Amino acid sequence: MLLNIIGRSFLNQKKSMALMTASIAVGTALVASLITVSLDVAAKVSKELRSFGANILVEPKVEGLADISGHKRYLRSEDIAKLKAIFWRHNIVGIAPFLKSDAVLSAGGKEGGVTLAGAWYEKEIPLPGEAGNFTAGIKTVYSWWEIKGRWPQGKDEIIAGVSAATQYSISPGDSILLDGRRVTVSGTLETGGPEDGWMFMDLAPLQEVKGLDGKVSRVLVSALTTPMDDFAYKDPESMSISEYEKWYCTGYVTSIAKQAEEVFEGSSARPIWQVAATEGKVLEKISLLIYLLCASALAASAIGVSTTMIMSLLRRVEEIALMKALGADRWRIITLFLAEGILIGIAGGLFGYLFSIGVSEYIGLKVFDSGLQQRAVLLPIAIGSAIVISAAGTVLPIRRALSIRPGIILKGAR
Questions:
Q1: Do residue 186 and residue 97 come from a single domain?
Q2: CA pair distance 207, 155, nearest whole angstrom
């Protein structure tokens, strides 16, 4: 009997049913698409933020008498490749070693002290135990650095920061004296930071000139990380074995820094908190925005379903009154509307899920320049969301239907 009534209801109200199904499909598609974005947003946003600089700094560990005397310590260049052998090696997307030294610059009729930094711009390094190579250097960590000219290709070429170039009237192609040696300026660099006052040259020639073969002053690391939570800030020294294992095997910036410290002999690695904290705040706000949009989409769809179902109810008042006059109790009326809503929800959920695949792909390409991963778990989530929408949309129509008085309605229908 119930199935017969529902079947006739669908046949007699095709436009209303189609409208409710479309409303649910749109709401479900938005929710499923936003959930798809939320599942990938941490990795995507982290990857986007990595283009703005490193989030881990590795420096020589200086303590005791060496710290008091100001004795310089260095890291070993040979340890750089070991970063791609740690537990979170696949999260390491950029490595830039630097060797800083003081130098005397003579150019434009002026002479003065300047910071001379040796670095890799773009260098292929072999991966431990693997056949392929990894591209390291400034380009992988500070891709936004703007070089006018080209990167040095030998020990007799340098790059001048724009501040130093302006101070000493240096232009690309000029020949200057650096520590008494004649070098050529292959280009200028503008970063908007302190590096604008430095001079840069390729790492290997500077190591050779300074007698520091195989030594670097610091290594900047760009790593994809998991947003920091309360557990991430817990002191590893106070953790139990199981807690430490969980912390160590989670991609926090602190745990990746710890693993970086383990592979560099005599090093101290720490997060660059300005970058790491900003990343966490951005991800937190994006997640909150996604949740609010999901709630808004569900509410809007539920209102659409409720409005359409009330209009449908107004056309079925006599039918509901007759059912109640023939003995249908309140639970039969509730079951009727809920059954209709659930069937519409399932249909809308299926259509919404299929629609969400295209929507999420579009969002991924437009926002992140890459598609988002489609997960099978979204199908039950989409159908579940659709049923929630349809069930919420039936609340007001059910209340209206239960308030119908058969005697009054049927008397007026005669």
A1: yes
A2: 10
Amino acid at 111: E
The answer to whether residues 245 and 340 belong to one domain is no
* Terminal C-alpha separation, the chain: 25
Q: Which residues contact 136 (CB under 8 A, 6 or more apart)?
A: 80, 94, 95, 96, 97, 120, 122, 123, 124, 125
What is the per-residue pLDDT across 137-164, written as a single tens digit (0 to 9) for each? Answer: 998 888 888 888 888 887 789 999 999 8
CA atoms within 13 A on the CB side of 197: 7
Number of CB atoms found within 10 A of residue 311's CB: 13
Task: Count the Cβ atoms, other than its own, within 10 Å of residue 85.
Answer: 14
Boundary-marking domain end, from 240, 271, 302:
271
Q: Which residue has the tokens 């199908």?
A: 379
The residue range of the domain holding 377 is: 2-46+280-413
Q: What does DSSP assign to residue 80?
A: G
Whether residue 61 is found in the same domain as residue 41: no
Give me the number of domains the chain comprises.
2
Single residue among 253, 271, 289 that ends a domain in this structure: 271
Considering the domain architecture, whether residues 255 and 298 belong to the same structural domain is answered as: no
> In sequence order, which residues have a C-beta less than 8 Å from that of residue 276 and are 6 or more positions away?
55, 225, 228, 253
Same domain, 243 and 353: no
- pLDDT single digits (tens) 46-97: 666 656 678 899 999 876 544 444 567 899 999 999 999 899 888 898 999 9
What is the Rg, in whole angstroms, of the alpha carbon atoms belonging to the chain? 33
Residue 353 CA to residue 334 CA, distance in Å, equals 28
